[in-house]
Amino acid sequence: MLRLEELGAGERERWRELRAATEAPRSPFMEPEFAAAVSGVRPRARVAVLYEGASAEPTGFLPYERGAWGQGRAIGLGVSDCQGAVLRPGLVPETGELLRACSVSSFAFDNLEAGQALFVPHAAEEHATFVIDVEKGYETYESVLRAQSPKFLKTTLAKERRLGRQAGPVRFVFDERDPAALRALIGWKSAQYRRTGRRDRFAQEWITRLVGRLAGTRAPECTGTLSVLYAGERPVAAHFGLRSASVLACWFPAYDTEFAKFSPGLVLHLRMAGAAAGEGIGLLDMGRGPAEYKDSLKTGEHAVYEGEATRPGPGAALQLLRREPVRRAHGFVAARPRLASLASRALKGAARLRRP
Is 22 helix (H, G, I), strand (E, B) or coil? Predict the structure, then answer.
Protein backbone atom coordinates (compact mmCIF):
# COMPACT_ATOMS: atom_id res chain seq x y z
CA MET A 1 0.00 0.00 0.00
CA LEU A 2 1.31 3.43 -0.90
CA ARG A 3 0.70 7.02 -0.01
CA LEU A 4 -0.67 8.88 -3.00
CA GLU A 5 2.43 11.05 -3.23
CA GLU A 6 4.53 7.87 -3.62
CA LEU A 7 2.88 7.00 -6.94
CA GLY A 8 5.23 7.57 -9.84
CA ALA A 9 4.34 9.39 -13.05
CA GLY A 10 4.10 6.06 -14.90
CA GLU A 11 1.68 4.64 -12.35
CA ARG A 12 -0.53 7.72 -12.52
CA GLU A 13 -0.58 7.51 -16.29
CA ARG A 14 -1.53 3.82 -16.06
CA TRP A 15 -4.36 4.81 -13.69
CA ARG A 16 -5.65 7.22 -16.35
CA GLU A 17 -5.33 4.57 -19.07
CA LEU A 18 -7.35 2.05 -17.06
CA ARG A 19 -9.98 4.66 -16.29
CA ALA A 20 -10.27 5.63 -19.95
CA ALA A 21 -10.82 1.97 -20.85
CA THR A 22 -14.02 1.71 -18.79
CA GLU A 23 -17.48 2.48 -20.14
CA ALA A 24 -18.41 4.64 -17.15
CA PRO A 25 -18.65 8.44 -17.48
CA ARG A 26 -15.21 9.98 -16.85
CA SER A 27 -15.95 11.45 -13.42
CA PRO A 28 -13.11 13.67 -12.15
CA PHE A 29 -13.62 12.15 -8.68
CA MET A 30 -12.15 8.90 -10.03
CA GLU A 31 -8.92 10.47 -11.25
CA PRO A 32 -5.51 10.36 -9.50
CA GLU A 33 -5.51 14.16 -9.11
CA PHE A 34 -8.58 14.05 -6.86
CA ALA A 35 -7.11 11.24 -4.76
CA ALA A 36 -3.82 13.14 -4.45
CA ALA A 37 -5.65 16.30 -3.32
CA VAL A 38 -7.49 14.33 -0.62
CA SER A 39 -4.21 12.76 0.47
CA GLY A 40 -2.81 16.25 0.99
CA VAL A 41 -5.43 16.97 3.67
CA ARG A 42 -6.20 13.45 4.95
CA PRO A 43 -2.98 11.82 6.22
CA ARG A 44 -4.51 8.32 6.34
CA ALA A 45 -5.24 8.26 2.60
CA ARG A 46 -3.65 5.34 0.78
CA VAL A 47 -3.80 3.58 -2.58
CA ALA A 48 -3.63 -0.14 -3.25
CA VAL A 49 -1.78 -0.91 -6.48
CA LEU A 50 -2.86 -4.24 -8.01
CA TYR A 51 -0.78 -6.51 -10.22
CA GLU A 52 -1.94 -9.62 -12.05
CA GLY A 53 0.41 -12.60 -12.28
CA ALA A 54 3.83 -11.57 -13.55
CA SER A 55 2.49 -8.35 -15.09
CA ALA A 56 5.05 -5.57 -14.99
CA GLU A 57 2.43 -2.85 -14.98
CA PRO A 58 -0.49 -2.28 -12.60
CA THR A 59 -3.88 -3.74 -13.44
CA GLY A 60 -5.80 -1.76 -10.86
CA PHE A 61 -5.87 0.93 -8.18
CA LEU A 62 -8.03 1.34 -5.08
CA PRO A 63 -7.72 4.71 -3.34
CA TYR A 64 -9.04 4.61 0.24
CA GLU A 65 -8.67 6.00 3.73
CA ARG A 66 -7.75 3.88 6.73
CA GLY A 67 -9.27 4.71 10.11
CA ALA A 68 -7.51 4.53 13.44
CA TRP A 69 -9.08 1.13 14.21
CA GLY A 70 -8.47 -0.41 10.81
CA GLN A 71 -11.78 0.42 9.16
CA GLY A 72 -11.58 1.55 5.55
CA ARG A 73 -13.59 4.03 3.54
CA ALA A 74 -13.71 5.42 0.03
CA ILE A 75 -11.29 8.26 -0.41
CA GLY A 76 -12.99 11.58 0.29
CA LEU A 77 -16.05 9.84 1.75
CA GLY A 78 -18.65 12.48 2.58
CA VAL A 79 -17.68 14.81 -0.25
CA SER A 80 -16.76 12.54 -3.17
CA ASP A 81 -19.68 12.03 -5.55
CA CYS A 82 -18.16 9.03 -7.36
CA GLN A 83 -16.25 6.20 -5.68
CA GLY A 84 -14.74 2.81 -6.33
CA ALA A 85 -11.75 0.98 -7.76
CA VAL A 86 -10.05 1.63 -11.10
CA LEU A 87 -9.51 -1.82 -12.62
CA ARG A 88 -8.61 -3.43 -15.89
CA PRO A 89 -11.88 -4.29 -17.66
CA GLY A 90 -12.94 -7.78 -16.63
CA LEU A 91 -10.74 -7.87 -13.52
CA VAL A 92 -12.71 -8.54 -10.30
CA PRO A 93 -10.41 -9.38 -7.36
CA GLU A 94 -11.71 -11.27 -4.34
CA THR A 95 -13.03 -8.55 -2.04
CA GLY A 96 -11.89 -10.06 1.26
CA GLU A 97 -8.36 -10.65 0.00
CA LEU A 98 -8.12 -7.07 -1.26
CA LEU A 99 -9.30 -5.66 2.07
CA ARG A 100 -6.82 -7.86 3.89
CA ALA A 101 -4.01 -6.64 1.65
CA CYS A 102 -5.07 -3.06 2.44
CA SER A 103 -4.97 -3.87 6.20
CA VAL A 104 -8.59 -2.77 6.63
CA SER A 105 -11.58 -4.68 7.98
CA SER A 106 -14.10 -2.87 5.81
CA PHE A 107 -14.60 -0.47 2.92
CA ALA A 108 -17.48 2.00 3.31
CA PHE A 109 -18.93 3.93 0.38
CA ASP A 110 -21.85 6.30 -0.14
CA ASN A 111 -21.56 7.17 -3.85
CA LEU A 112 -20.29 3.96 -5.38
CA GLU A 113 -20.22 4.10 -9.16
CA ALA A 114 -22.57 1.76 -11.01
CA GLY A 115 -20.73 -1.13 -12.64
CA GLN A 116 -18.29 -1.60 -9.75
CA ALA A 117 -18.58 -5.39 -9.67
CA LEU A 118 -16.10 -5.55 -6.80
CA PHE A 119 -18.33 -3.66 -4.34
CA VAL A 120 -21.90 -3.40 -5.71
CA PRO A 121 -22.81 -6.83 -4.22
CA HIS A 122 -22.10 -5.30 -0.80
CA ALA A 123 -24.39 -2.29 -1.30
CA ALA A 124 -27.22 -1.75 1.18
CA GLU A 125 -29.01 1.00 -0.77
CA GLU A 126 -29.32 2.32 -4.30
CA HIS A 127 -29.70 6.05 -4.88
CA ALA A 128 -30.33 8.23 -7.92
CA THR A 129 -27.82 10.84 -9.01
CA PHE A 130 -29.38 13.50 -11.24
CA VAL A 131 -27.78 14.43 -14.54
CA ILE A 132 -28.07 16.98 -17.34
CA ASP A 133 -27.23 15.59 -20.77
CA VAL A 134 -25.82 18.22 -23.16
CA GLU A 135 -24.07 15.74 -25.43
CA LYS A 136 -26.10 17.01 -28.42
CA GLY A 137 -25.61 20.67 -27.56
CA TYR A 138 -27.29 23.24 -25.36
CA GLU A 139 -30.06 23.99 -27.85
CA THR A 140 -31.16 20.34 -27.71
CA TYR A 141 -31.13 20.52 -23.91
CA GLU A 142 -33.33 23.63 -24.00
CA SER A 143 -35.81 21.80 -26.23
CA VAL A 144 -35.95 18.98 -23.66
CA LEU A 145 -36.67 21.49 -20.89
CA ARG A 146 -39.46 23.07 -22.92
CA ALA A 147 -41.04 19.67 -23.49
CA GLN A 148 -40.84 18.38 -19.92
CA SER A 149 -41.61 21.63 -18.09
CA PRO A 150 -43.01 24.30 -20.44
CA LYS A 151 -43.14 27.08 -17.84
CA PHE A 152 -39.79 26.46 -16.17
CA LEU A 153 -37.41 27.73 -18.84
CA LYS A 154 -39.59 30.71 -19.74
CA THR A 155 -39.92 31.77 -16.09
CA THR A 156 -36.23 31.37 -15.33
CA LEU A 157 -35.12 33.39 -18.35
CA ALA A 158 -37.63 36.09 -17.44
CA LYS A 159 -36.15 36.29 -13.94
CA GLU A 160 -32.67 36.60 -15.44
CA ARG A 161 -33.80 39.58 -17.52
CA ARG A 162 -35.43 41.16 -14.47
CA LEU A 163 -32.24 40.65 -12.46
CA GLY A 164 -30.33 42.51 -15.17
CA ARG A 165 -32.75 45.42 -15.11
CA GLN A 166 -32.77 45.79 -11.33
CA ALA A 167 -29.20 44.89 -10.31
CA GLY A 168 -27.07 45.56 -13.38
CA PRO A 169 -26.01 43.67 -16.52
CA VAL A 170 -25.86 39.91 -16.01
CA ARG A 171 -22.66 38.18 -17.02
CA PHE A 172 -21.34 34.70 -16.45
CA VAL A 173 -17.79 33.43 -16.02
CA PHE A 174 -17.42 29.66 -16.44
CA ASP A 175 -13.87 29.41 -15.05
CA GLU A 176 -13.37 32.27 -12.61
CA ARG A 177 -9.94 32.55 -10.94
CA ASP A 178 -10.73 35.32 -8.44
CA PRO A 179 -10.15 33.98 -4.87
CA ALA A 180 -12.68 36.49 -3.52
CA ALA A 181 -15.44 34.80 -5.52
CA LEU A 182 -14.54 31.43 -4.02
CA ARG A 183 -14.60 32.92 -0.51
CA ALA A 184 -18.03 34.39 -1.22
CA LEU A 185 -19.31 31.01 -2.38
CA ILE A 186 -18.02 29.25 0.73
CA GLY A 187 -19.70 31.88 2.91
CA TRP A 188 -23.05 31.44 1.12
CA LYS A 189 -22.81 27.65 1.29
CA SER A 190 -21.98 27.64 5.00
CA ALA A 191 -24.95 29.91 5.64
CA GLN A 192 -27.18 27.61 3.59
CA TYR A 193 -26.10 24.56 5.59
CA ARG A 194 -26.86 26.34 8.86
CA ARG A 195 -30.13 27.81 7.56
CA THR A 196 -31.43 24.38 6.58
CA GLY A 197 -30.20 22.63 9.72
CA ARG A 198 -27.52 20.62 7.92
CA ARG A 199 -23.99 20.02 9.11
CA ASP A 200 -21.77 22.79 7.77
CA ARG A 201 -19.19 20.99 5.67
CA PHE A 202 -16.97 24.05 5.53
CA ALA A 203 -16.74 24.06 9.31
CA GLN A 204 -14.48 21.03 8.75
CA GLU A 205 -11.02 22.37 8.02
CA TRP A 206 -10.02 19.48 5.76
CA ILE A 207 -12.91 20.16 3.37
CA THR A 208 -12.04 23.85 3.07
CA ARG A 209 -8.40 22.94 2.47
CA LEU A 210 -9.40 20.29 -0.09
CA VAL A 211 -11.46 22.80 -2.08
CA GLY A 212 -8.53 25.21 -1.97
CA ARG A 213 -6.19 22.56 -3.37
CA LEU A 214 -8.60 21.53 -6.09
CA ALA A 215 -9.25 25.16 -7.07
CA GLY A 216 -5.66 25.21 -8.27
CA THR A 217 -5.74 21.78 -9.94
CA ARG A 218 -5.45 21.88 -13.72
CA ALA A 219 -5.35 18.45 -15.34
CA PRO A 220 -7.12 17.26 -18.51
CA GLU A 221 -9.43 14.94 -16.55
CA CYS A 222 -9.64 16.81 -13.23
CA THR A 223 -9.82 20.60 -13.22
CA GLY A 224 -11.21 22.67 -10.37
CA THR A 225 -13.82 25.00 -11.87
CA LEU A 226 -15.39 28.01 -10.19
CA SER A 227 -18.36 29.39 -12.14
CA VAL A 228 -19.85 32.74 -11.16
CA LEU A 229 -22.97 34.68 -12.13
CA TYR A 230 -22.58 38.45 -11.77
CA ALA A 231 -25.17 41.21 -11.76
CA GLY A 232 -23.26 44.40 -12.45
CA GLU A 233 -19.97 43.81 -10.68
CA ARG A 234 -21.52 41.85 -7.83
CA PRO A 235 -21.46 38.03 -7.67
CA VAL A 236 -24.99 36.74 -7.01
CA ALA A 237 -24.51 32.97 -7.46
CA ALA A 238 -21.57 30.65 -7.82
CA HIS A 239 -20.61 27.01 -8.10
CA PHE A 240 -17.39 25.14 -7.46
CA GLY A 241 -16.96 21.71 -9.00
CA LEU A 242 -14.60 19.50 -10.93
CA ARG A 243 -14.57 18.80 -14.63
CA SER A 244 -13.02 16.23 -16.90
CA ALA A 245 -13.04 16.41 -20.68
CA SER A 246 -16.56 14.96 -20.73
CA VAL A 247 -18.15 15.41 -17.26
CA LEU A 248 -18.79 18.44 -15.06
CA ALA A 249 -19.33 17.25 -11.49
CA CYS A 250 -21.64 19.79 -9.84
CA TRP A 251 -20.41 19.98 -6.25
CA PHE A 252 -20.95 23.18 -4.25
CA PRO A 253 -23.59 25.57 -5.67
CA ALA A 254 -24.93 28.53 -3.66
CA TYR A 255 -26.27 32.05 -4.11
CA ASP A 256 -26.66 35.37 -2.30
CA THR A 257 -30.07 35.17 -0.59
CA GLU A 258 -30.55 38.91 -1.15
CA PHE A 259 -31.28 37.99 -4.78
CA ALA A 260 -33.37 34.88 -4.08
CA LYS A 261 -36.47 36.23 -5.87
CA PHE A 262 -34.54 36.11 -9.16
CA SER A 263 -33.65 32.40 -8.77
CA PRO A 264 -29.96 33.09 -9.48
CA GLY A 265 -29.02 29.47 -8.76
CA LEU A 266 -31.23 28.23 -11.58
CA VAL A 267 -29.90 30.90 -13.93
CA LEU A 268 -26.37 29.87 -12.97
CA HIS A 269 -27.04 26.21 -13.78
CA LEU A 270 -28.47 27.05 -17.19
CA ARG A 271 -25.42 29.17 -17.98
CA MET A 272 -23.15 26.35 -16.75
CA ALA A 273 -24.93 23.86 -19.00
CA GLY A 274 -24.43 26.15 -21.99
CA ALA A 275 -20.77 26.77 -21.22
CA ALA A 276 -20.09 23.08 -20.57
CA ALA A 277 -21.65 22.11 -23.91
CA GLY A 278 -19.49 24.75 -25.59
CA GLU A 279 -16.40 23.13 -24.02
CA GLY A 280 -17.36 19.71 -25.39
CA ILE A 281 -18.56 18.41 -22.03
CA GLY A 282 -21.51 16.07 -22.49
CA LEU A 283 -22.77 15.49 -18.94
CA LEU A 284 -23.38 17.57 -15.82
CA ASP A 285 -23.70 15.39 -12.71
CA MET A 286 -25.71 17.15 -9.99
CA GLY A 287 -25.15 14.39 -7.45
CA ARG A 288 -27.47 12.31 -5.32
CA GLY A 289 -30.17 13.62 -3.04
CA PRO A 290 -33.56 14.99 -4.09
CA ALA A 291 -33.96 18.73 -4.64
CA GLU A 292 -36.56 20.77 -6.45
CA TYR A 293 -33.97 22.52 -8.62
CA LYS A 294 -32.57 19.16 -9.74
CA ASP A 295 -36.02 17.98 -10.77
CA SER A 296 -36.40 21.13 -12.86
CA LEU A 297 -33.02 20.85 -14.58
CA LYS A 298 -32.41 17.13 -14.98
CA THR A 299 -32.69 15.09 -18.15
CA GLY A 300 -32.14 11.74 -16.44
CA GLU A 301 -30.80 9.76 -13.51
CA HIS A 302 -27.90 7.38 -12.88
CA ALA A 303 -27.57 4.88 -10.06
CA VAL A 304 -25.06 5.13 -7.22
CA TYR A 305 -24.77 2.85 -4.20
CA GLU A 306 -24.25 3.10 -0.47
CA GLY A 307 -22.98 0.33 1.75
CA GLU A 308 -19.93 -1.38 3.15
CA ALA A 309 -17.84 -4.36 2.15
CA THR A 310 -16.39 -6.22 5.10
CA ARG A 311 -14.20 -9.18 5.89
CA PRO A 312 -14.77 -11.38 8.96
CA GLY A 313 -13.45 -10.00 12.23
CA PRO A 314 -14.30 -7.82 15.23
CA GLY A 315 -13.48 -4.60 13.39
CA ALA A 316 -16.10 -5.25 10.71
CA ALA A 317 -18.70 -6.21 13.33
CA LEU A 318 -18.16 -2.96 15.19
CA GLN A 319 -18.51 -0.99 11.96
CA LEU A 320 -21.82 -2.66 11.12
CA LEU A 321 -23.17 -2.04 14.61
CA ARG A 322 -22.24 1.62 14.33
CA ARG A 323 -23.42 2.34 10.77
CA GLU A 324 -26.36 0.07 10.05
CA PRO A 325 -28.94 1.57 12.49
CA VAL A 326 -28.25 5.06 11.13
CA ARG A 327 -28.47 3.89 7.51
CA ARG A 328 -31.75 2.09 8.15
CA ALA A 329 -33.22 5.14 9.86
CA HIS A 330 -32.25 7.37 6.93
CA GLY A 331 -33.70 4.87 4.47
CA PHE A 332 -36.96 4.60 6.43
CA VAL A 333 -37.45 8.39 6.37
CA ALA A 334 -36.37 8.85 2.73
CA ALA A 335 -38.88 6.23 1.56
CA ARG A 336 -41.76 8.17 3.11
CA PRO A 337 -42.15 11.63 1.51
CA ARG A 338 -44.42 13.04 4.22
CA LEU A 339 -42.03 11.94 6.95
CA ALA A 340 -39.08 13.33 4.98
CA SER A 341 -40.89 16.68 4.67
CA LEU A 342 -41.53 16.77 8.42
CA ALA A 343 -37.88 15.92 9.10
CA SER A 344 -36.75 18.76 6.80
CA ARG A 345 -39.00 21.23 8.63
CA ALA A 346 -37.67 20.03 11.97
CA LEU A 347 -34.08 20.58 10.81
CA LYS A 348 -34.89 24.11 9.67
CA GLY A 349 -36.66 24.83 12.94
CA ALA A 350 -33.69 23.58 14.92
CA ALA A 351 -31.39 25.77 12.83
CA ARG A 352 -33.49 28.85 13.64
CA LEU A 353 -33.35 28.04 17.36
CA ARG A 354 -29.55 27.80 17.22
CA ARG A 355 -29.14 31.24 15.69
CA PRO A 356 -28.01 33.99 18.08
Answer: coil
